[in-house]
Amino acid sequence: MFILMLINIRTSELQSNNINSIPLALFITILLNYALFQLLPYSIAIINSYNNKLSNIIYYLPTSKYNDIITHISKNIDINTANVMFVTSNSWDGNMAETSHISTIGNILYTSYNMWLFIASFILLLAMVGAIIITIKQERNRGISSMVERLFYTQNVKGSNPLLLKII
């Protein structure tokens, strides 16, 4: 909301002809998509059909076979889940160390999904720089008179001297 107030777009700017920026936007979009799909591994790609196929197989699996698979797996794996109270992980010395959810998310984010972290930070950087560039007003007149007007101005108030210069 602050950025929208900071931009202060006038309706005359919205109605101006912006047809020249469409080819540039298309070029940047194609370039960014090409770079993303060349850099990202296939397993992290956005359009991954393997997950869809696997979910369809599990979804259409009859419940009797599904229950048989679960009971078979649970009988073959001897896990006592009654005493498990929290998620633990092995530390470097072999002792069990408790990890919080935030540290687990951070560990996964910085090791497995670091490319997505870079992409998100790059998008936020572009948004920040774009908002700053949009808010910077370009001066149209760069003559000496505009510099003097910018530094000093006259204030026309009843009873005051119109030649009185005040510093901004």
UniProtKB/TrEMBL annotation:
This is NADH-ubiquinone oxidoreductase chain 6. The gene is nad6. GO terms for molecular function: NADH dehydrogenase (ubiquinone) activity; oxidoreductase activity. It catalyses: a ubiquinone + NADH + 5 H(+)(in) = a ubiquinol + NAD(+) + 4 H(+)(out). It comes from the Eukaryota. One of its GO terms (cellular component) is mitochondrial membrane. Gene3D superfamilies: NADH-ubiquinone/plastoquinone oxidoreductase chain 6, subunit NuoJ (1.20.120.1200). The chain crosses the membrane at residues 21-44, 115-136. The keyword Glycoprotein does not apply. It is found in: Mitochondrion membrane. InterPro entries: NADH_UbQ/plastoQ_OxRdtase_su6, Nuo/plastoQ_OxRdtase_6_NuoJ. Core subunit of the mitochondrial membrane respiratory chain NADH dehydrogenase (Complex I) which catalyzes electron transfer from NADH through the respiratory chain, using ubiquinone as an electron acceptor. Essential for the catalytic activity and assembly of complex I. Its main location: mitochondrion. Keywords: Electron transport, Membrane, Mitochondrion, NAD, Oxidoreductase, Respiratory chain, Translocase, Transmembrane, Transmembrane helix, Transport, Ubiquinone. It is a multi-pass membrane protein. Belongs to the complex I subunit 6 family. Its EC number is 7.1.1.2.
